[in-house]
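job 3f2a | input accepted
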Amino acid sequence: MLPAVTRVADAFWRALAYCAFPRVIWLTLLPLVLSVVSAAVMGYFFWQPAVAAIQHGLVAWEWGQRFLGMLDQWGSSSLRAVVAPLVVVALSLPVLVVLSLLLVAGLAMPSLVELVRARRFPLLRSRHHSPWWHSAVWSIWSTLVALALLLASLPLWLIPTVGWWLPSLIWGWLTYRVMCFDALADLATPEERTLLMARHRGALLAMGVVCGCLGMAPAAVWALGALSLVLAPLLLAVSMWAYTLVFVLSSLWFLHYLLAALQTLRANEPDAMAIPAEEVS
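job 3f2a | predicted structure (281 res):
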């Protein structure tokens, strides 16, 4: 049996190669279109109220007044007008990330499962079919937990470096939960899924954290300060496509790893199923 690191690396390079397939490239476009349309609709209805609320909060909040006063002291009072919009953009990015993840999981994952199974695991048969609402409930509940953790951890982001690795860890946990369930939903029985997620939890969480870090990378396109507000429509499309591509790559990575693990599990089924499944966290 290959070491865990080798299996993870093998699955990653296979996923990277699959991203060049025309079918996979096409699958990145549908979630992109829906994401951009959804973001545009939310921006049309909520942008101005959100900016006004942030501006009011900065004036009413003591620390906000201190921050604005520091801008005046530094001769940067002209930046007052862009602080609130930049804050709204920063708070919107987690929503865009979650939206991209859920759209890829719901729209692209079934096609990716069939692609990987047909090309690499043609003898791997389906033993269970989870209703779509099982996946929806699992994804929504995991997303709510992740968003709650993000909100609760916001004060910690002011600590140097924590603002990078902590969100990545939370996104990693969310990616691990959503991708594992959707990858195995129409192939593995609940018992097999629980066993695989328990037995490979370390590797899968590590993969999720890497995907979480990759998922934070598209946010770099907004690091242009005030200029990002001028280029917002273009940057929105670029960042949403980047998020979609990252999560398609993540889906393929989890698929290659989990379907190989499922095939191995079934090949050694008498011994494997004798091991009690642990509770999946």
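job 3f2a | The CA atoms of residues 18 and 24 lie 7 Å apart.
job 3f2a | closed
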